[in-house]
Specification:
The chain has 64 residues and is an all-alpha fold. It has one domain (1-64). Helix content is 23%, strand content 0%. The protein contains two helices and no strands. The mean pLDDT is 93.
Length: 64
C-alpha cells in the first residue's frame, strides 16, 4: 500500500528489482510510483486495474 493508501500490485516492498524506482512503496505516493517503468513502458497498477484485466481476460489469479 502506498503512503496515500492505494493498494498496488508489485512483487516487493521496494520497486528497485522490478522498476526504475527506488525507496519503499509504503513511503511513496501512487502518482510517484506510476512514473516508474516496470518494463517496456508498463506501469505499476493498482489492485482494481489488475482485477479488471483478470476479469476481461478470464484468467485464474492467486492473490497472496
Amino acid at each position: 500500500m502506498t503512503i496515500d493508501h492505494k493498494i498496488v500490485v508489485i512483487l516487493d516492498g521496494t520497486p528497485e528489482r522490478t522498476t526504475t524506482g527506488t525507496g519503499k512503496v509504503c513511503a511513496t505516493t501512487f502518482e510517484q510510483l506510476r512514473t516508474r517503468d516496470a518494463g517496456k513502458g508498463e506501469k505499476i497498477p493498482i489492485l482494481s486495474e489488475a482485477l479488471s484485466l483478470v476479469k476481461i481476460l478470464d484468467l485464474n489469479w492467486l492473490l497472496s
